[in-house]
Every structure is written in structure tokens, then in C-alpha cells.
Amino acid sequence: MRIDVITIFPEVFEPVFSSSMLGRAAEKGLVQFVTHDLRDYASDAHRTVDDYPFGGGPGMVMKPEPFFRAHEAVTADDDRPATTILLCPQGAPFRQDTAVVLARAERLILLCGRYEGFDERIRSLADLELSIGDYVLTGGELPAMVVVDAVARLVPGVLGDASSAEEESFSMGLLEYPQYTRPASYAGRDVPDVLLSGDHARIARWRREQAIIKTARRRPDLLRDLDLSDAERALAEAQTHVQTSEERT
Ligand code: SAM
């Protein structure tokens, strides 16, 4: 997969794209990251990418021409078909299922806004507008990093153990079950016996139940459209008013 990012701050991506799992994915050639300075596509000596809004109002708006020129050049730089994503608080909420779909793409091009946002005509470049949450950030760079991180770790070969992506929160429509590591007992708190039993079928059953309980208590909205057995649905409904002592603190 190749991921291009068009931004006025290409330098902020370097440490993120070269560290940890993303850095290893790039080293292994599984994901190629390419950043582009939007100002290189401006047409004046000052490399201007913003202008005053027509009709008045606060702040500056990102001009269309640099984005159109940059997008055309970046698209032409590679034969593979690209999905273009515009980062925007007005976009569709970015979710794990979106990341799963995007991880199958051969190429992604991400457009990062700044100032008061994009001239409306820039939206026509995008196949998809994504928001990372109902709050407003100063620019699209952090949202682009969030999307790239969530997508790249799902590209085959990037995670050491592919099953970790299959079992984690949101993948099955549930939050992940509680996880423990050594020591088996710490400060009077014991790891549940079932996890030490070596009985894999029992452990799998316990984890499924715990995932349902946790989801019902913390994110009941996730359960609404989920395919649960009658017993699982009853287990979820029983949690509605229960809060663990850990959750209360
Ligand atoms: N005036 C715009 C509005 O009300 O929708 C917000 C502009 S924001 C200050 C500047 C840029 O940051 C946006 O164009 C977008 O690229 C990015 N951005 C801010 N919040 C975001 C979010 N929650 N999700 C995705 N991108 C966001």
C-alpha cells in the first residue's frame, strides 16, 4: 500500500511514519509513506495557500488551486488507483470498520486542512470525508496520523500476530475482553482462575461473556445491531444498571 499525505506541515509526519510499527511497516516495504508540501503547489512567490472568505467572517479559507494541482500531480505519480480522503470535522465518523475497508486499498491520498477549513470546491477531490471525533482541531495532520495508524496496522504482515487485530475492540462489534499478564496475584488482586486453567474452550467462553458484559456497561450503543444469542442478549441486558467498582473510580 502507498499512502500520500498533502499538508502544509509535512515535517510533523516524519517521526510518526518512521517510528514503531509504522516505521517497521515502511522498512519491510509493506506500506510506503509519501508526504507532500501543499505550498509547493502554490502559484505565487509567498507560496500562499489560504485567502479571505467570500461574504466575510473570521479566519482564512484554504484556496482550491494548490489542492487541485497537488492532487493531480500526486495521483499521476503512481499507476495504482487511489482513494482520496479529506480530513474534516464534518466528515463521516472514522470507525474500525472504515479502517478495515481502507486497509484493502492499494493507495490512499489524505488531504489535511488548516485555518477555517477548505474552500467547498476542494471536497470534489475526495472519495470520502472523515472526522476523527466531534471536536475541532487546528489542522488535519493529527486526524491523518490517526487514520494512517489505524489503517496501516491492518495491512497484512504489519502486525506480528494477525489474530490480535481479529480479537481486539470493535473488530467483532464488541469491546475487548479483560487482559492480564504476570504476576497472577498482585497487591491482593488475582487473575481470574479460568485464565490459569489451560482449558481453551472455557477461556474462549469466558472472554466472549466478558466482552459482552464490558460492552453492555460501557458502550451499550454497540450492541444494538449485533447478532447475539438469546442468552448473550439476556447477559447484556442484565448489565444495564451495573457498574463495577473499577468503573466507578
Ligand atoms: N471551520 C471548520 C468547521 O467548522 O468545520 C473547522 C476547520 S479546522 C479549524 C481546520 C482543519 O482541521 C479542518 O479543515 C480539518 O482538516 C481538520 N480537522 C479539525 N478537526 C477535525 C476532526 N475532528 N476530524 C478530522 N479533521 C479535523
Short structural description:
With 249 residues, this protein is of the alpha/beta class.
Report on the structure:
The protein is an alpha/beta fold and 249 residues long. It has 2 domains: 2-152, Alpha/beta knot; 167-248, tRNA(m1g37)methyltransferase, domain 2 (Trp Operon Repressor, Chain A, Orthogonal Bundle). It has 9 helices and 9 strands. It has a 5-stranded parallel β-sheet with strand order 2-1-6-5-7. Strands 3-4 form a two-stranded antiparallel sheet. Strand 8 (185-186) and strand 9 (189-190) form a beta hairpin. The longest helix is centred in the last third of the chain and has 19 residues, at 200-218. S-adenosylmethionine binds next to strand 5.
Q: Mind sketching the topology for me?
A:
Layout (H helix, E strand, L loop, with lengths): L1 E6 L6 H5 L1 H8 L4 E6 L12 E2 L9 E2 L1 H13 L5 E12 L2 H7 L4 E5 L16 E4 L9 H12 L10 H5 L17 E2 L2 E2 L9 H19 L11 H9 L6 H4 L1
Parallel strand pairs: 1-2, 1-6, 5-6, 5-7
Antiparallel strand pairs: 3-4, 8-9
Helix pairs in contact: 7-8
The structure holds S-adenosylmethionine (SAM).
The site of S-adenosylmethionine has 20 residues, from β5.
Question: Tags for this entry?
Answer:
Trp Operon Repressor, Chain A, binds S-adenosylmethionine, 249 residues, alpha/beta, Alpha/beta knot, 2 domains, single chain, 9 strands
Tally of structural domains:
2
Q: If strands are numbered along the chain, what order do they take across the biggest sheet?
A: 2-1-6-5-7
Task: Catalogue the ligands.
Answer: S-adenosylmethionine
Count of helical regions: 9
The whole-number mean of residue pLDDT values reads: 95
Residue fraction in strands: 15-25%
Instruction: Give me the secondary-structure category.
Output: alpha/beta
Envelope shape: elongated
Which CATH first-tier class of the largest domain would you pick?
A: Alpha Beta
| Helix/strand order, N-terminal first | EHHEEEHEHEEHHEEHHH
Radius of gyration, taken over Cα atoms and rounded to an integer in Å: 22 Å
